[in-house]
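User: I'm writing a short report section on ligand binding and want a predicted complex to refer to. Could you take this sequence and adenosine-5'-triphosphate and write out the structure as tokens? A short remark afterwards would be nice.
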Amino acid sequence: MEDPVQTAAQGGIGPVLAASGIVKSYRRGLWPARRSVPVLRGADLALDAGEIVGLVGENGSGKSTLMKILVGALAADAGTVTRVGGLGYCPQEPLVYPRLTCDEHFDLFASAYAMTAPAVQASRESLYKSLGFARYARTRADQLSGGTLAKLNLGLALLADPQVLLLDEPYAGFDFDTYQKFWHLVADRRRAGRSALIISHFVVDEERFDRILDLTEGKTVPR
Ligand SMILES: Nc1ncnc2c1ncn2[C@@H]1O[C@H](COP(=O)(O)OP(=O)(O)OP(=O)(O)O)[C@@H](O)[C@H]1O
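Assistant: Sure. The structure tokens for the complex follow:
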């Protein structure tokens, strides 16, 4: 069967994720020196089905803030976000339960996604294989290396095969082999009409992205 989202985007119906005029300020300091510091000043973004987009900007430019707003983990002061289909989010700091094993994490997330047992099993095995961490299936999260923890973090975001994947610095802790596995996985998903927004401080392999957006002075600028 054809992917309805992909068909919609190919037919020009619209993006699978769109943000328009996003404004966000943080409050800093203690009273009476408390002040509002603007981070996003009307940022726009649109992601079509099957698109891989890079979001690049210097430290503190607001990339994570924008991603948290896209996911719905943080409220914007102004602007709108619209989404079509499921969303997978991989935060910069892995959010895991130290005492649970990788298998137990997948089970926990699968029940949150209301996945059937065969679907979980198939997705989990495929993720272990494509990211290369099957041997840690029964290892507790607090005994994993930083890189394997990053694989678990990514695997959990991918478990339910979301239409859009939002990744905040996904490959910082990856060795070169894992980095390549990561891009194979992204390319496979892209062929299936899935999209990804990838945050990075800098882009090494620009050709792997369909587009790059620079976040500067609170706005996204196409490169
Ligand atoms: N909860 C918060 N309260 C106050 N200020 C914050 C908060 N979160 C982020 N900031 C500030 O907002 C600005 C943007 O932060 P953000 O984490 O979005 O940037 P970033 O581009 O993702 O940075 P990095 O590349 O270092 O991860 C920074 O100056 C940061 O100090």
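A remark for your report: The longest strand covers residues 35-47. Residues 1-11 have pLDDT under 50 and may be disordered.
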